[in-house]
Amino acid sequence: MLKTKTIPAVEARVHFGSIIKQVMKEGKHFIVEKAGIPVLAIISAVEYERFMEEREERFEILDRIKAKVPNVSKEKVEKDISKAIQAVRKKND
What we know:
Elements (H helix, E strand, L loop, with lengths): L3 E5 H6 L1 H11 L2 E6 L2 E6 L2 H24 L5 H19 L1
Parallel strand pairs: 1-2
Antiparallel strand pairs: 2-3
């Protein structure tokens, strides 16, 4: 399993070239913190594009579900979907 490394912003700035190489060649992920607060992630462009495509697909699915139950709030639909996903994940564990 891929491990994400958390680093301070100063370290990211000082070692940016090395971080880029690790992301490109080794597929590593980095979380950059400022004052101990996570502020950004560094991942490959390929992973970012895949993430954005999957995100868009999920929103399209949510929109289709919402269209079939127009009298139910978006929040209720999202809550029900989350419960269903959790139940499936629990069953598969």
